């Protein structure tokens, strides 16, 4: 019994231990299973997170790709809009030009077309930079800007669009606004272009007012107000976001990208200001920005009026309050101006002479005035009074009276001032359109360029302003010349052999206190902002581009010099300077080149013949240098051709050379073969031009008169004159031409007549190297 119990106890003990072991094993396995499950759960969560993250990344990448595609589409659409606006102005003006015979009227049309063209060129030039705004922000340029001209010219470029909807477009410029500010004129015009374009788009009737208010302390308030559809308060914040407009119905009805105001907002912030909007649905909108600009020239048109000694009586005939407001703002606060306002010409004639008859009458060609003129064409006959008509571009030529001045709307303050105080700036002389050219006597100017054509064009243009001009062919010559001769201003090419313009400018600025204030102007074919910055950083005062524009040169000279007096351009045009007698060849704008040379047709012909001779085989030369890997030589030659061709009206050749130069500068080597072919094709037109000029010269040049036996001419006299020619040959074309003419007169009929004819021929053909050899050989033989 005891044994049985003992065995039972042992059995129970074994079973207990086995159960405990089983429980321990179960617990261990359970823990292992739990841990494994936890690890699986964690792995699952990690995988889910990774999948979720990748899904989000893919979604973001997809959204970014869609956003980029949309942005690109919106960018292209916006550029199309920006390009079409000024292009519409150009086309509208050219359409009006077809039916306009008066030279003065053509001038007014062309001025507006030029304003639109300049805006178009500006937009095109800045498209590439515009694409950088999102990535690197807005880059601002700080240059001297005529704010009045900046605003008025951009408004003029929209005159066609506004007139097509019968909208009044008016510019109201505070007459106390200083003439020059330090600013980025293009960015201001970019903002205004968008404001005015939107105002025209969203206004069906009424007016658009572009206003500039000068608040003092370098603060300028610029506003564009319309009478359009307006914007609801809750939608105001949306329109400054990219790609957004007030609502979808706006896009459907009016089109547009909604990108413009966002860009304007970014530009305004970069300028240190913000755009404000005041708008009510159905009552119109007013966009404005208050910008702080550094004043450069504080002279205002209001000051110019106050300085006039004579008292003026001015009458304005208009039933348009906006037109009246333009004149009130300009003249009403002036104590030396009496203003009279009339709604009709009849009221002017019946009441205007009660006290003192007006000297100048401005007649607004709209409303009641138009009705009067249609009823009686002689209504404008106002005795002893100078009448100035205020016209829209499409009214030019209507009810024309030849001796009346005409101002094109929107009116410009400067043109109104000229009409009152200096009408000779606007009058016709002998039935020919003319302008006043500033003359700067007793001023010495140095022009530095390695290209003979550019030197001769610049020399002729500057002498037309009464300047004394000296020439140098590279930066080293310029530095040496300036250290020994006192100059009032220097035009300095940037890219030259021996010493370039940048290096020369830096050397001059550090050479002594006496040259610190010498105005140095970069004169180059490089038009980018980066090139301008390099010029200014080198110590130059300004930067102008080729081909040279006489108006730009004149404006620059007026900035640096006091005007001695003004002369009519007609009195400066040389004999034989009419546009007729020039061949009409595709790819060449020879009339523009003729204007650049102040109408000197003979000089233009000589320069064109020289250009043909110098670059007729340039296509082969460029290709050979490219094949040899001499890319620097290719770039240098392309640069020469671009500058010389631009000045001589070879527009296609100049453009092709410019494209080739840019490709080399930007290391775009893949495009070089096609650009070289294009360059060669353009240069193929030179033989045709050369023949046309020679044929023209043969038919128009007077025959050399038969030689008459002259008095004896001594070899010493010949040597003296030939030495003078040799000294001036490559430096002063005009002086060389005069010396050659004097030499021919001296030798006429003498034993040296044949030599004189040889010298004359070689000079006319620009065979300067051979001419120098002939002169040197004669001097050596007869010394």
Automatic annotation (TrEMBL):
Highest taxon of the lineage: Bacteria
Record GO terms (molecular function): ATP binding; phosphorelay sensor kinase activity
Signal peptide range in chain numbering: none
Occurrences of domain HPt (ranges): 600-693
UniProt entry tagged with the keyword Transferase: yes
Record keywords: ATP-binding, Cell membrane, Coiled coil, Kinase, Membrane, Nucleotide-binding, Phosphoprotein, Transferase, Transmembrane, Transmembrane helix, Two-component regulatory system
Predominant localisation class: membrane
Gene3D superfamilies linked: 1.10.287.130, 3.40.50.2300, Histidine kinase-like ATPase, C-terminal domain, HPT domain
Stretches of the chain forming a coiled coil according to its record: 5-68
Enzyme class, broadest EC rank: transferase
Residue numbers of 4-aspartylphosphate PTMs: 493
Compartments it resides in: Cell membrane
Gene Ontology terms: cellular component: plasma membrane
Bilayer topology annotation: Multi-pass membrane protein
Pfam families (alphabetical): HATPase_c, HisKA, Hpt, Response_reg
Catalyzed chemical reaction(s): ATP + protein L-histidine = ADP + protein N-phospho-L-histidine
UniProt EC number: 2.7.13.3
Record-linked PROSITE patterns: HIS_KIN, HPT, RESPONSE_REGULATORY
Modified residues (Phosphohistidine): 639
Domain Histidine kinase as annotated: residue spans: 78-295
PANTHER family to which the protein is assigned, alphabetical: HYBRID SIGNAL TRANSDUCTION HISTIDINE KINASE J
Protein name in the entry: histidine kinase
Gene source species: Halioxenophilus aromaticivorans
């Amino acid at each position: 019994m005891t044994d049985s119990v003992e065995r039972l106890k042992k059995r129970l003990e074994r079973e207990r231990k086995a159960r405990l072991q089983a429980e321990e094993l179960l617990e261990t396995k359970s823990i292992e299973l739990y841990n494994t499950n936890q690890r699986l759960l964690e792995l699952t969560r990690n995988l889910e997170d990774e999948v979720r993250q990748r899904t989000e990344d893919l979604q973001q990448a997809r959204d970014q790709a869609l956003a980029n595609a949309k942005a690109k589409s919106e960018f292209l659409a916006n550029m199309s809009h920006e390009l079409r606006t000024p292009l519409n102005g150009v086309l509208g003006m050219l359409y009006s030009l077809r039916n306009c015979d008066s030279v003065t009227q053509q001038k007014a049309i062309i001025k507006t077309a030029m304003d639109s063209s300049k805006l178009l060129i500006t937009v095109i030039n800045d498209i590439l930079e515009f694409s950088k705004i999102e990535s690197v922000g807005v880059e601002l340029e700080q240059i001297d800007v005529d704010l009045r001209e900046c605003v008025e010219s951009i408004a003029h470029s929209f005159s066609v669009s506004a007139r097509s909807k019968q909208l009044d477009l008016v510019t109201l410029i505070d007459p106390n606004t200083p003439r020059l500010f330090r600013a980025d004129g293009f960015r201001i015009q970019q903002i205004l272009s968008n404001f005015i374009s939107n105002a025209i788009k969203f206004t069906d009737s009424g007016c658009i007012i572009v206003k500039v208010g000068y608040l003092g302390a370098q603060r300028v308030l610029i506003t564009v107000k319309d009478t359009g559809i307006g914007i609801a308060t809750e939608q105001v914040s949306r329109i400054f976001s990219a790609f957004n407009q007030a609502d979808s119905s706006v896009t459907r009805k009016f089109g547009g990208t909604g990108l413009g105001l966002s860009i304007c907002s970014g530009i305004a912030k970069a300028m240190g200001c913000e755009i404000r909007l005041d708008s009510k649905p159905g009552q119109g909108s007013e966009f404005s920005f208050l910008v702080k600009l550094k004043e450069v020239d504080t002279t205002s048109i209001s000051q110019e009026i106050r300085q006039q000694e004579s008292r003026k009586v001015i009458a304005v005939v208009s039933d348009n309050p906006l037109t009246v407001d333009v004149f009130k703002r300009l003249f009403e606060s002036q104590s030396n101006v009496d203003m009279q306002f009339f709604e009709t010409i009849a009221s002017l004639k019946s009441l205007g002479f009660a006290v003192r008859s007006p000297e100048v009458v401005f007649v607004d060609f709209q409303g009641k005035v138009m009705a009067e003129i249609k009823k009686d064409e002689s209504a404008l006959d106002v005795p002893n009074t100078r009448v100035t008509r205020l016209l829209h571009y499409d009214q030019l030529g209507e009810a024309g009276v030849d001796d009346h001045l005409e101002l094109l709307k929107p009116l410009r303050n400067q043109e109104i001032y000229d009409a009152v105080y200096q009408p000779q700036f606007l009058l016709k002389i002998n039935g020919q359109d003319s302008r006043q050219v500033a003359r700067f006597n007793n001023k010495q100017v140095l022009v530095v360029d390695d290209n003979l054509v550019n030197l001769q064009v610049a020399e002729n243009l500057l002498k037309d302003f009464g300047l004394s001009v000296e020439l140098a062919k590279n930066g080293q010559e310029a530095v040496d010349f300036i250290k020994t001769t006192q100059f009032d201003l220097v035009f300095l090419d940037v890219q030259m052999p021996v010493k370039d313009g940048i290096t020369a400018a830096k050397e001059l600025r550090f050479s002594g206190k006496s040259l610190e204030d010498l105005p140095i102007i970069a004169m180059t074919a490089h038009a980018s902002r980066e090139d301008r910055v390099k010029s200014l950083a080198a110590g130059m005062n300004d930067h102008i581009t080729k081909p040279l524009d006489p108006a730009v040169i004149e404006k620059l000279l007026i900035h640096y010099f006091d005007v001695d007096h003004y002369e009519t351009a007609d009195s400066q045009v040389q004999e034989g300077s009419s546009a007729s007698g020039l061949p009409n060849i595709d790819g060449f704008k020879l009339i523009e080149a003729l204007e650049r040379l102040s109408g000197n047709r003979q000089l233009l012909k000589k320069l064109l013949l020289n250009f043909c001779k110098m670059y007729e085989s340039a296509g082969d030369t460029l290709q050979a240098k490219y094949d040899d890997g001499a890319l620097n030589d290719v770039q240098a030659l392309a640069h020469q051709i671009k500058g010389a061709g631009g000045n001589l009206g070879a527009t296609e050749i100049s453009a092709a050379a410019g494209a080739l130069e840019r490709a080399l500068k930007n290391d775009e080597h893949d495009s070089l073969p096609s650009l070289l072919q294009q360059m060669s094709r353009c240069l193929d037109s030179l033989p045709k031009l050369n023949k046309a000029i020679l044929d023209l010269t043969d038919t128009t040049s007077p025959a050399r008169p038969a030689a008459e036996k002259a008095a004896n001419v001594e070899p010493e006299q010949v040597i003296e004159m030939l030495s003078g020619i040799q000294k001036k040959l490559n430096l002063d074309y005009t002086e060389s031409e005069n010396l050659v003419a004097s030499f021919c007169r001296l030798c006429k009929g003498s034993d040296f007549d044949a030599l004189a004819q040889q010298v004359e021929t070689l000079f006319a053909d620009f065979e300067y190297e051979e001419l120098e050899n002939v002169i040197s050989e004669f001097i050596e033989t007869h010394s």
